[in-house]
């Protein structure tokens, strides 16, 4: 299995390096902007503290997404390339059982995902240090939830692509479910916003509308985040288990 | 160690697809020999090989590899088998050094020394990416990797197709060298019958999913012949002696499957030796009986 893992890492490495560069550039850029809000050109602006607060509250999410998606992206299309290069076919001629093939893919994907998670944590530390504030436990929780949700999708992609063979086909098929789901989420978000807006007008008539809305929304968002914080690991472990057994079953079907 | 007489034993192998059936295919590849597996495109060669390697699941039948069941003892058998396909199954971004690192962890008996010796012998670069290899280089690399884990059985699917004669000859020489060890065997599918004329000990001919002939090449070539006669004489040939006949303006060329008997029966007729290509051609047209 070591050989298979080595091969998967080797073939993913270039994309990971490119995405790592994008991550470094992004983190450096945001760090410099944060520092600039108190020690550079941006410090001259009246709203420099607001800008800094905004950056500190948002940018760790983008850095985390770049890190996690970047680390796993190169590995995502490997199954399609394996079909194209006929490695998938060749792997059946090797004295390696299906469970080892799937395990090697899962090991690489999980390692890359965890590397992305670590980079996301590092970004939070860097941004906090640049903003001269302590690293936020809330942010760590959010990054963890992000990793669990993104990780579950990313890991389920392994058996899914074994069936679909190409990413285009896979993406097209997933759209069938994704489009109504997105529409439902957007509609839900719209209804939630309306609710928050109405509640803010009722409870906090003296506050600015955005601030009032946030005050109403925050307890709900935190509650949902905390639910995900507990459910996330189960979702992720569930996805890994499903990917493992489904992947073995799929490989045993021998789609040739 | 398991004892076996035949490197491959196939009995009544059946696989049904929409529009094609591999129909009760049976043949053996004797240990220490090279068997040519011939047939036109779509005859069922690749399906048979994929079934042998358990790449496709058979519907019925029995397959034994080196005396082991190809499903129950799949991984024990595959440790001692090497497969070579018509195209290199390695990613274009890899090079020989990485493939060595991968396969030495996969095969217990992988020898990096043997692998790199083959690379040197074939003048293949170690660091060059496979994407930049020519077709001949890719095939040589595939053969180098197939021969580097002490495989006892080599299964090749159209491995020499598309290669120039010089590279083909070089590769055939390697196979003959590999067969110097009497434990080694080769099953080689091809529609380039001239290659098999050179190296094969036995031949199995498949058409439309059915095995038409299987046996030692010399026996097949000895028993078959092309009887040449005029149109008038052709009428006197018994239908049961004719595999099929190629007619032309002057007469007929008839493939006979029992040359000795036909020589006695039609004493005046000229019977030329047949090549594997002739046999394939006449058998493929057997349903028409007469063709031009």
From TrEMBL, chain B:
Keywords: ATP-binding, Nucleotide-binding, Transport. Residues 8-233 form the ABC transporter domain. It comes from the Bacteria. InterPro entries: AAA+_ATPase, ABC_transporter-like_ATP-bd, ABC_transporter-like_CS, ABC_Transporter_VariousFunc, P-loop_NTPase. Pfam families: ABC_tran (PF00005). One of its GO terms (molecular function) is ATP hydrolysis activity. This is ABC-2 type transport system ATP-binding protein. The lineage of its organism: Bacteria, Bacillati, Bacillota, Clostridia, Eubacteriales.
């Amino acid at each position: 299995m070591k050989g298979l893992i080595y091969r998967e890492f080797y073939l993913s490495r270039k994309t990971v390096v490119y995405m790592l560069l994008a991550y470094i550039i992004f983190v450096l850029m945001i760090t410099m902007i944060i520092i600039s809000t108190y020690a550079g050109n941006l410090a001259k602006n009246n709203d420099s503290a607001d800008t800094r607060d905004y950056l500190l509250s948002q940018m760790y999410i983008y850095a985390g997404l770049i890190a996690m998606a970047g680390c796993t992206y190169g590995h995502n299309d490997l199954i399609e390339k394996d079909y194209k290069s006929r490695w998938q076919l060749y792997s059946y001629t090797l004295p390696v059982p299906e469970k080892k093939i799937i395990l090697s893919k899962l090991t690489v994907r999980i390692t890359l995902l965890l590397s992305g998670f670590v980079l996301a944590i590092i970004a939070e530390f860097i941004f906090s240090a640049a903003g001269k504030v302590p690293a936020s436990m809330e942010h760590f929780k959010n990054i963890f939830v992000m990793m669990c949700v993104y990780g579950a999708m990313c890991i389920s992609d392994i058996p899914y692509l074994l069936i679909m063979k190409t990413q285009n086909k896979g993406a097209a098929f997933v759209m069938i479910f994704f489009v109504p789901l997105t529409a439902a989420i957007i509609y839900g978000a719209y209804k939630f916003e309306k609710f928050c807006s109405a509640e803010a007008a009722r409870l906090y008539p003296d506050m600015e509308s955005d601030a009032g809305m946030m005050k109403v929304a925050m307890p709900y968002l935190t509650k949902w985040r905390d639910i995900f914080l507990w459910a996330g690991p189960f979702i992720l472990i569930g996805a890994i288990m499903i990917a493992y057994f489904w992947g073995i079953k799929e490989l045993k079907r021998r789609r040739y | 160690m398991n004892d076996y007489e035949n490197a491959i034993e196939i009995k009544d192998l059946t696989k049904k697809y929409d529009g094609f059936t591999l129909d009760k295919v049976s043949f053996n590849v004797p240990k220490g020999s090279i068997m040519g597996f011939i047939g036109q495109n779509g005859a069922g060669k690749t399906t048979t090989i994929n079934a042998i390697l358990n790449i496709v699941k058979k519907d019925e039948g029995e397959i034994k590899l080196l005396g082991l069941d190809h499903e129950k003892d799949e991984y024990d058998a595959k440790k001692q088998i090497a497969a070579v396909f018509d195209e290199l199954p390695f990613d274009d971004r890899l090079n020989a050094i990485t493939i060595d690192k991968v396969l030495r962890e996969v095969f217990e008996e992988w020898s990096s020394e043997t692998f790199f010796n083959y690379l040197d012998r074939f003048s293949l670069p170690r660091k060059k990416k496979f994407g930049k290899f020519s077709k001949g280089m890719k095939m040589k690399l595939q053969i180098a990797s197939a021969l580097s884990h002490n495989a006892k059985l080599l299964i090749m699917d159209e491995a020499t197709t598309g290669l120039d004669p010089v590279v083909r000859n070089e590769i055939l020489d390697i196979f003959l060298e590999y067969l110097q060890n009497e434990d080694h065997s080769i099953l080689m599918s091809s529609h380039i019958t001239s290659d098999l004329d050179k190296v094969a000990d036995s031949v199995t001919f498949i058409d439309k999913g059915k095995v038409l002939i299987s046996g030692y090449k010399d026996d097949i070539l000895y028993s078959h012949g092309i009887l040449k006669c005029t149109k008038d004489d052709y009428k006197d040939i018994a239908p049961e002696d004719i595999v099929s006949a190629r007619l032309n303006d002057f007469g007929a060329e008839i493939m006979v499957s029992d040359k000795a008997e036909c020589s006695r029966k039609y004493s005046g007729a000229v019977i030329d030796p047949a090549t594997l290509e002739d046999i394939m051609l006449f058998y493929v047209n057997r349903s028409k009986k007469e063709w031009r």
